[in-house]
Structures are given as structure tokens and as C-alpha cells.
Specification:
Layout lengths: L3 E11 L8 E15 L4 E5 L14 H9 L7 E6 L10 H16 L6 H12 L3 H8 L2 E6 L4 E6 L6 E7 L5 H6 L7 H20 L5 H4 L6 H4 L6 H10 L4 E4 L6 E5 L4 H15 L3 E6 L7 E6 L1
Helix pairs in contact: 1-2, 2-3, 2-4, 3-4, 9-10
The protein binds L-homoserine.
L-homoserine binds next to helix 4 and helix 5.
Length: 302
């Protein structure tokens, strides 16, 4: 049992406004996970955010996910992780690590597990499916849990909608951001989100991008997370004023995702960065596109 694999996995933005725990969009920032047989278990890290890769194999999500699928007879492994997705930023870094470990094990040990099964396991390890589904499938994915299974459907994301990501210089732990949510919400808020979530898909599919402004409004999670995410309100306002179609909290934050015509992305990025600088917390800005490709084994073998 000495297979090996190298896997590339995209970052992802969950929710996109009204689609709390349902929408996930893969974006073109990618981490890489390579697993090779070694004398003992270990982890090496590279990339811009290498210092954020846990070196303890019992705390590293990619390593744990890989082990969860590896046959009992598999020997020790070295994980080389190249981390380019900002950590704890609301860009699905933990989902990417889990998906990377699962896809690597599937490839290295020629397990032949279908995508459905990989997604079921990834969503279970992650606790919610939106980021894991986008990281695995790529593009825009809707995930819906029924009593018996998880339905994940990829829908086309248009090429002429660009993405701007602003990562403010503070961090928000997903656990605290989930703890801030109420157990019950008023019916009018549920209805408002239902309509906006449907509107987001319809606007993207029919090219009515001006409707993304309304479609990215949310009543189920963003208002309750505003205190943890002081950049949210001013950044969304700045993005819209600079010509973005719409903007929302990425996952549980602190990143803000804006959708814009490709040639307006730089202006939107600048406007959002100015707000962050003025407020004193600074930010990093990424002008990117949606990622067509989900997790992919770059190479590997037995
Ligand atoms: N849908 C999740 C949440 C994403 O908003 O809590 C976490 O990144």
C-alpha cells in the first residue's frame, strides 16, 4: 500500500448572500496537497500561508482526511502542503484541505469512490456542505440535504462576471460566527431569503446581472454576524458604489466577495481596500475569477 498523489483544490466562497449553507462558488486561488510514502508520518509546508499549516498530523485536516480513507495496511506518509488560500478568511481553506486529503487518498489507493461519496464524507467532516461541494466540483454549486442524502448540483457560472475578494486584516472563527446565529428566524426573513436565493441563480443564468444587487442581500446570517465583521457594511457599500453588481460576506467572514464586470474589478478592489485602510484594519485584495475546475489529481500512482 504505497500509492502517492498530488492534488490541487480551489478556494471557495460560501453563502453568496442569501444562500446560507447552500451556495458555494469555487474561486481561482488554489492549494496543493501531495502525499508520498515516507519513513515516518510528517508534514512539510510551502506557499504564502505556509506558517498556517498545522505540522501535527493529528491536527492537520488534509492528513486526517487522507488517513480516514487510507487502507489499514498503508504505511507512513509525508504530506507536502502548499497553502495559498488565506486561513480563517471565509474562503473555505478547511474544506479544501479535507477535500484535498480525500481526493488524494482516492487517487493514491485507486479506491474508485464516486464524487457523491467523497462529497458526503467531506461535508460530514466539515459540518456544512457549501464550501466542500464547490471545492470538489468547481464552479457554482448548490447543496441541499434531504433526510436520506446530500444533493449537490453544479450550475453554470458566467465568464463575464468577475470576482473581487477583500480579506480584512482580522480573523473570524467559523465556530463563533455560527454561534452568533439565532435558532429561529421570522417568517418574512425566511421568505425574503428564499426569493433572493432563487433570484441569484436566475440572474446569473439569464444575464440579468443588475439583479445581483438584490440577490446578494441576506436576512438569515449577515445581520447577526455584522459585529464580528465590521468591514462588511462599509465594504459592500463601497463595492456597489464602484460598480459591483453585488457583494456579500464570504462564508462566515471576514472576506467580502464582490461580483463585477471583469473590467471594473480593479476599481471595485481599490474602493474596498480604501474602506479597509480608512477603518484601520487593512486588507489583502484578490482580483480573480470563478474556478471552473474543482479538486483535481495532478498526478499520482500506485
Ligand atoms: N455556510 C457556512 C457559514 C460557511 O456561513 O457558516 C462557513 O465558511
Amino acid at each position: 500500500m504505497t500509492g502517492w498523489a498530488r492534488v490541487s483544490v480551489p478556494a471557495s466562497s460560501g453563502n453568496l448572500g442569501a444562500g446560507f449553507d447552500v451556495f458555494g462558488l469555487a474561486v481561482d486561488l488554489r492549494d496543493e496537497y501531495s502525499f508520498t510514502p515516507a519513513a515516518r508520518d510528517g508534514i512539510e509546508a510551502g506557499g504564502k500561508f505556509r506558517r498556517h499549516v498545522p505540522r501535527d498530523t493529528t491536527r492537520n485536516l488534509a492528513f486526517q482526511a487522507f488517513r480516514s480513507l487510507a487502507p489499514a495496511a498503508a504505511g507512513p506518509y509525508l504530506l507536502r502542503a502548499t497553502r495559498e488560500i488565506p486561513p480563517q478568511g471565509g474562503l473555505g481553506g478547511s474544506a479544501s484541505a479535507i477535500v484535498g486529503g480525500l481526493v488524494a487518498a482516492n487517487e493514491a489507493f485507486a479506491l474508485g469512490l464516486p464524487q457523491d461519496e467523497l462529497l458526503r464524507r467531506a461535508a460530514e467532516l466539515e459540518g456544512h456542505p457549501d464550501n466542500a461541494a464547490a471545492a470538489l466540483l468547481g464552479g457554482l454549486v448548490l447543496s441541499v440535504h434531504t433526510e436520506t442524502r446530500l444533493h449537490a448540483v453544479r450550475v453554470p457560472f458566467p465568464d463575464d462576471v468577475g470576482v473581487v475578494l477583500t480579506v480584512p486584516g482580522y480573523r473570524v472563527a467559523t465556530a463563533s460566527a455560527r454561534a452568533a446565529l439565532p435558532a429561529k428566524v421570522p417568517r418574512e426573513h425566511a421568505v425574503a431569503n428564499l426569493g433572493r436565493a432563487a433570484l441569484l441563480v436566475a440572474a446569473l443564468q439569464t444575464g440579468q446581472y443588475e439583479k445581483l444587487r438584490a440577490a446578494t442581500e441576506d436576512f438569515l446570517h449577515q445581520p447577526y454576524r455584522a459585529e464580528l465583521n465590521p468591514a462588511l457594511g462599509p465594504s459592500v457599500a463601497a463595492a456597489l458604489a464602484a460598480g459591483a453588481y453585488g457583494a456579500a460576506l464570504s462564508g462566515s467572514g471576514p472576506t467580502i466577495i464582490a461580483f463585477a464586470p471583469p473590467d471594473r474589478r480593479m476599481g471595485v478592489a481599490g474602493a474596498m481596500a480604501d474602506v479597509a485602510l480608512e477603518a484601520g484594519y487593512g486588507c489583502e485584495t484578490y482580483v480573480v475569477n470563478a474556478a471552473r475546475d474543482g479538486a483535481a489529481a495532478l498526478d499520482g500512482g500506485g
